[in-house]
């Protein structure tokens, strides 16, 4: 009974998922990942983009000045990105659990079934992004999709 209560208390949320440039090297892998995501979440919006340096700098402005920032900007402008708006109850937490931490090597040991463990290359080239809060999700979804999405409820 308790597990049911916890599950039903989660709010309907929409979060941003990014599939980063390295995943585009193998079309079949990219398709398989997107199908896996669609099985667990409703994809409310989808957009493939190629970022300019300015786009990447605006999105990752909070990291400016950190040692990894130049590598991150270079990586995120190296090829296409697939932005997905994922909707379901507890979407933010569930997507972040599914992708794992930003350290793929650590995830391969601690949580080998996470997406970053399976596909991430390095701490910077970790293949996926997930919003870390409702406020971040709102800001990030607006960055990619413009207006507030209809299912972006809390």
Short description:
With 154 residues, this protein is α+β, with helices and mostly antiparallel strands.
Instruction: Provide the gyration radius in Å.
Output: 15 Å
The CATH topology turns out to be Alpha-Beta Plaits
How are the strands of the biggest sheet laid out side by side? 2-3-1-4
Number of helices: 8
On the 0 to 100 scale, the average pLDDT is 90
Shape: globular
Q: Kindly report the name of the CATH homologous superfamily.
A: Nucleoside diphosphate kinase-like domain
H/E element sequence: HEHEHHEHHHEH
Assigned CATH architecture: 2-Layer Sandwich
**Secondary-structure content class:** alpha+beta
Organism: Coemansia brasiliensis
Domain Nucleoside diphosphate kinase-like: 12-151
Protein name: Nucleoside diphosphate kinase
Keywords: ATP-binding, Cytoplasm, Kinase, Magnesium, Metal-binding, Nucleotide metabolism, Nucleotide-binding, Transferase
């Amino acid at each position: 009974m308790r597990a049911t209560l916890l599950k039903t208390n989660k709010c309907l949320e929409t979060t941003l998922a990014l599939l980063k440039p390295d995943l585009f090297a193998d079309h079949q892998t990219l398709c398989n990942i997107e199908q896996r995501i669609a099985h667990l979440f409703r994809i409310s919006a989808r957009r493939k983009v190629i970022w300019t340096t300015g786009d990447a700098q605006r999105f990752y402005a909070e990291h400016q000045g950190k040692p990894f920032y130049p590598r991150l900007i270079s990586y995120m402008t190296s090829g296409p990105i697939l932005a997905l708006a994922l909707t379901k109850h507890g979407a933010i937490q569930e997507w972040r659990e599914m992708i794992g931490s930003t350290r793929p090597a650590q995830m391969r040991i601690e949580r080998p079934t996470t997406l970053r463990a399976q596909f991430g290359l390095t701490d910077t080239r970790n293949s996926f992004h997930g919003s870390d809060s409702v406020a971040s999700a709102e800001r990030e979804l607006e960055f990619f999709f413009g207006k507030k999405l209809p299912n972006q409820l809390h």
